[in-house]
Every structure is written in structure tokens, then in C-alpha cells.
Amino acid sequence: MRTLPGAAATAVRDLVTAPGRPGRVVGVHPTCVYVVTGTHGDAADTVVALETADALGLPCSVRLGVDRSAQPFADVRLGDPALVGAGRVVAGSLTVTVVRWWEPRRPRHLHLPGRPEGQVDERRVNVLTRLLEAHPAPVPADASVGDLLGLGPGLTPAGDDVLAGLLVALHSHDDLRRPLADEIGRLARSRTTALSAALLRHAAAGLALPAVVNVADALAGHGSDDDLVDAVARLVTVGSSSGTALAHGLLRGARTVARMAEDAA
């Protein structure tokens, strides 16, 4: 058995501090291990990721103080028994003890003088549109929720990534986000993986990878155009298609918000 200290996201505080619950390892990579515990119907509270210091920064993760070169997950295997709770996460022969907490970032409001909060910078939306011309969506980004959920291979299908980006883009618009989140929540239990359903629930609360939040912030007018270009360049490198799908979801949401502002003008 190996024991390491970790910093847990506040989004999984209730899960990590509750009495221990058995689970299983559903994914193992050099920078992360995914653990599912409990019932799929309560997915956002039943998934936790163990991440190295150089990993993506999932909002449901417990982050270690070592990077992938230390190979902390070398002895963890897919299907290993797990335990989450009482201040620790056990995955196979690895135990991670939570010694501190970190707060995942949410998107910031619009940063343009004289404009209402929650809107987007339409010029930046056009910049994102041009940037993504070189990175086509891996699935039809404008498809319905029912068509997108579970669409694509892997633990986080590309269709789900589009929806996650869309939810983050709509974070400041409860009237748009809540019905969408409710529909996704109803269907996700039977349409996609427990991990992806959990990430969608977190996205509905505005929680996502820092690379996603950085693009959302840039669309709201924060930073410069170059910051948006850099943020998109980093996002599209995430996974084989996840980052690109997330970016197209953000673009779909930004366009939705821009159209709403035009209709209200």
C-alpha cells in the first residue's frame, strides 16, 4: 500500500468527508484515476478523480503534489476496488489522504463598461468562430440534447463535452441554463457514463476545467484577444477530441447569449 497527501476540490467535499463508501476504478491514465462510488442516479456526488499536479484540473478531483513523472498510479488497475470517504480516497493499492481543499473557478461576468452582466463580447464570439474553423466539431454541435448525450466513444463522449461547454457558457443565464440542465440530468442517467454525467452536473454549476473557464472568461471580455487565442489553443489540445468539442459547446452557448441580447435590444 502507498499513501500520499492530496488537495480535494470543494465540489466533492461532501463525498470525501462522508463515511466511507465502496466503489471501483473506472479509468486509469498517467495523470489521473477515476473512481465511481454509489449509484449512477446521483452521479455528481459519486465520482472523484485522483490527479497528478500536471493534470487537467477536473472540478471533482483530489490533486497530488507530484507530477506524472513520479508514476503515482503505476500500481492502480482498471476495476480495482475503491473507497471514498472519511477524508481519503483509496484506489486499489493507493491511498490518498485529503490534507487541504481547493476551490474550482467559475466563469466571470461580462467585463465591458456600460453592458449588462451575463452578456458576451460579440466581437470575441466572432474571433472564436474563426479560430474553430481549423478545428471542426467531432459531432454535430447544434444537435439536440437527446442526440448529443452519449454520442461518441470513451468515458466522456464528445456529445457530452459539447453539452458541458454549452452549460458553462450559459452559467450567468439561469433562465437558459436550468431547463437545459434539468433535461440533461433526466436523460444522462440512462444515456451516458457515470463519469460524464458527473462532469455535466458540475458544468451545470459552472465548474469545469480551467482551460474551459479561461475561454469563457475571454468571451466575456476579460483579457485581450491574444488571451482568447492562447486559451483556445490550449483547450483544443485536451484529449483526442474533448477540448475541441468543449470549445464548440462554448461557441454554441455564446451565440445563444448574443442572439438573446440582440432580441432584447
Write structural notes for this entry.
Helix 2 (122-131) packs antiparallel against helix 9. The chain starts with a strand and ends with a helix. An eight-stranded mixed beta barrel has the order 1-5-4-3-2-6-7-8. The chain folds into two domains: 2-102, no CATH class; 122-264, no CATH class. The model has no long low-confidence stretch (mean pLDDT 92). It has 265 residues and is α+β, with helices and mostly antiparallel strands. 45% of the residues are buried. The protein is built from nine helices and eight strands. 39% of the residues lie in helices and 19% in strands. The protein has helices spanning 13-17, 122-131, 145-148, 158-169, 174-191, 194-204, 210-219, 225-235, 242-264, and strands at 2-9, 21-29, 32-37, 47-51, 61-64, 81-85, 88-91, 94-102.
Kindly list the characteristics that best describe this protein.
9 helices; eight-stranded mixed beta barrel; 8 strands; single chain; 265 residues; alpha+beta
